[in-house]
Sequence to fold (325 residues):
Amino acid sequence: MSTEKTIRWGVVGAGDIARRFGHGLAHAPDTQMAAVWSRRASTADVLAQQFGAQSCASLDELLSSDIDAVYIATLHDSHADYAIAGLAAGKPVLCEKPATVNAAQLERVLAVARDRQRLFMEAMKPPFYPLYRKLREHLADDPIGDIGFVRAGCSRADVPADHPTFSFEHMCGALLSIGIYEAFLAVDWLGAPLDVQTIGRLGSTGVDTFASLNCRHERGIAQLFCGLDLHGRGDALLAAPRGHVTIHENWWNPARATIRYVDGRVVELDHPFEGGGLNYETAHFCNLLRSGALESPVMTHAKSLQMITMMDAARAALGLKFAGE
Ligand SMILES: NC(=O)c1ccc[n+]([C@@H]2O[C@H](COP(=O)([O-])OP(=O)(O)OC[C@H]3O[C@@H](n4cnc5c(N)ncnc54)[C@H](OP(=O)(O)O)[C@@H]3O)[C@@H](O)[C@H]2O)c1
Fold:
């Protein structure tokens, strides 16, 4: 029997990802959905009932209930406010991607986390998947040299026109909804961005529907794309002097990778994921919480800042500004 403390989660927002998070908890040991609050009581009630949690009438009620951590699962425009509210109430916060819509907001969130000495992490799932961790281990044991080029993309043409991703009011669009994953991959392998060049387009609702980025990083170059109006291929390439890696589609839910060495060897890694995938980042966050850590060593605050700085630069190039910017 486990002796770990059960982490009781309070969930803000009750849409698709909140439900997937709830299913994932069954695969993250010693966790429980304890409370839910969302804008509409009806959706919060349904989610709370499904997972045996309390449905709260207000954010304050959720934050003062018996919870150990807050998961923010609302749309982009409200992440920063709810993260700050959670941290200010003394709760550790796991916040859906993008953690905030711009770097200035993220600086404010991190300042509150530092001030209140509370754990904060952006819910960026790929690095916690078994395949991704296995890939890092494999490359440490049987290296291909320093990765100097990352090429990755995701473009979907099947998002319904009324989906919030197209909403200007909710500050969505391809870059902040999808491109943030590609920014993660570039930053994770190549370090901080130094220069971001972007070509793209805005759609009829005013948000970006396709963007192509060429980025110079501390340790190499990245070529990234994200879109909502073309059906693109979702694999990723990591290139190095003695070989290259393909993380097969969909690379952001990594399950399979091929490493091709210059000497002709080919290594296939195959590690299916369980529980929908969100469970790995959740388990990591819970372990950090139990150990008293204030920051993930994997999904660091610096990486989140670097990623959103890239998105800021890309949006600036497209002339896309949201309310308050
Ligand atoms: N990690 C991943 O794999 C992944 C995948 C998809 C999405 N996401 C992220 O998850 C977030 C939510 O996406 P989703 O697909 O779950 O969206 P969704 O299905 O539209 O759900 C959003 C939920 O948040 C609530 N909400 C929205 N704005 C709010 C506000 N200002 N105050 C209180 N509640 C609010 C909505 O309430 P109403 O019902 O009242 O509108 C709804 O319950 C996004 O930021 C997205 O980037 C992550």
In short: Residues 13-18, 38-40, 43, 73-76, 78, 96-97, 123, 125, 164, 177 surround NAP (CB under 6 Å). The longest strand covers residues 193-202.
